[in-house]
Amino acid sequence: MKVNVNKDACIGCGACVSICEDVFEFDDEGMSKVIKEEVPSDLESDVKEAVESCPTAAIEEK
Ligand code: SF4
Question: Mean pLDDT for each consecutive 10-residue tract of the chain (62 residues)?
């Protein structure tokens, strides 16, 4: 599983970062960025939860 954040859609709410800080972190502008594009299998369920929790559907599974 790979994951990407659409920066145009992210509003920086922080939900993904708080759910899975091993994959998402804030960039210099306070928006989410992916730090592990290739998601380790043991983090996939957390990433899926982040995808479902994102209020703007900015997180894309690839
Ligand atoms: S949950 Fe969505 S809107 Fe919120 S910081 Fe993450 S990517 Fe951005």
Answer: 97 98 98 96 97 98 88
Task: For ligand 1, pick from 35, 47, 56 the residue to mutate: most ligand atoms within 8 Å of CB.
Answer: 56
- Indicate the domain borders of the chain: 3-61
CATH architecture designation of domain 3-61: 2-Layer Sandwich (3.30)
CA dist 32 to 15, 23, 37, 53, Å?
Answer: 9, 10, 13, 13
